[in-house]
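Issue: copy button drops trailing tokens. Both records pasted manually instead:
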Amino acid sequence: MGFFSFIVLLAIAYLIWRVTDQLPDLIFRLSEIQRDVAEIRRRLAESADAPAGGQGPESRSAPAPSAPATPAAGTTPSAPPTSGGGSDTSGS
């Protein structure tokens, strides 16, 4: 019985070692997925804000007088940028 318990303990230690060995890669992949989801949400929000009716740029001469030319300073994006996490991929 003691030998069997020792083998089970070794198996558990090995599995924990394998999981912790893969954690940095897993965290990086999760941050990439989170960034992709935020980009999709931003694009969906932008497309929902776009005018409907199939008006192209040639049919619109000028923006409506009540619409501001630039976004207000107090506006925030629909999905805030993710914080750090060691996944700085700005070069790729």
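Record 2 (pasted manually too):
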Amino acid sequence: MTIQTKHDETPLPEDKIVFYELEKVRFVVKDGTGLDIAYAYEDLVFSEHALFIIQFDGQDCNSWNCWFNQECNAADRLSLLKSLTASANLNNVLLTYQGTFEMSQSEGDDEITLRFSEL
């Protein structure tokens, strides 16, 4: 999987192991939206239908970033964000809307490219 962002990120040291609370994300997503988790990769957790991605911030286990698929219409995006935020707050998590993402895949290639666009 290739991930492209519009900002530079400081990489974690290679010897640092970070543990994420995937079950907590699963609960917040299910409680807030009724959706399941489809896939998790490194610090990214993809919702069913790839409507949004939850990203751990790497510093605070109770602080998550949220990215919406650019194909998700604005009304649905707002509704999902409100529900996710309410559920996150009830579970002592700060959820921050960061922007949108676009997924692409070259024909005949198994690799998926993500392109994030910040607000």
